[in-house]
Amino acid sequence: METGGKERYHLLDGLRGLTLISMICYHGMFDLVELYGAPVWWFWKLPGYVWQQSICWTFILLSGFCWKLGRNPLKRGMIISTCGILITLVTYCFLPEERILCGILTFTGAAVLSLIPLSGLLEKIPAQAGLFGSAFLFFLTRNINSGCLGFESLFLGSVPKVFYQGIFMTALGFPEPGFFSGDYFSYFPWIFLYLCGYFLYELLMKREPVQKFLQSRTYVLDWIGRKSLILYMLHQPVLLLVLECVFVD
């Protein structure tokens, strides 16, 4: 990951690459269980859920952390958003039972773009206060997709049902009745986790030892991280092709 100058923080690329590998393995297991009926009992239990959450949390935090490192957030946000729209179109056409609307790329693109007008205001917020406030808001709103406030099993109150209608409110985090998506990352609550990454950057990157540590190279993981978007776009078709060849009658 580059700054506006010539320095590159290779360890961030490596972390992104490692997380991408974990995600590909997770999706491969999902395909085995969901499409081919593999008897993996733990996948729909807590271990599978923790695995899935570790992937999306890392991606979103890392994306927020790297927001200032990119040279052109407008271009980056538009590219990611376009990829998200492409995934939506392809899944609607070829895998309607697993269609993806408001997926992780759609969210990430929206987050990148929305911080452009907000960056001036965010820079005025002390990093520690911004990190604490963002973490609190994520904790408070984590369950709004399910109609309530709270985090995981902690219930803090219901959200009025009037919010849960229409595709716009669905994209914001209030899914309308009957909504389904194979991958759903609404703007809220995930923007608050994204902002945690943003303020972590402000908090940590002023320290020279942190900058030197992040310059460490991981080579293969580094390369995978740099190519993460195209690998993300290609991995599911490749997985399905491989599995179809393996399980063909």
Give the topology.
Blueprint: H1 10-34, H2 46-65, H3 73-94, H4 104-122, H5 127-141, E1 148-149, E2 157-158, H6 167-172, H7 187-204, H8 208-214, H9 220-226, H10 228-247
Antiparallel strand pairs: 1-2
Helix pairs in contact: 1-2, 1-9, 1-10, 2-4, 2-7, 3-4, 5-7
Give a structural overview.
This protein is mostly helical. The chain has one domain (10-247). It has helices at residues 10-34, 46-65, 73-94, 104-122, 127-141, 167-172, 187-204, 208-214, 220-226, 228-247, and strands spanning 148-149, 157-158. Strand 1 and strand 2 form a beta hairpin. Helix 1 packs across helix 9 (220-226), helix 1 packs parallel to helix 10 and helix 2 (46-65) crosses helix 7 (187-204).
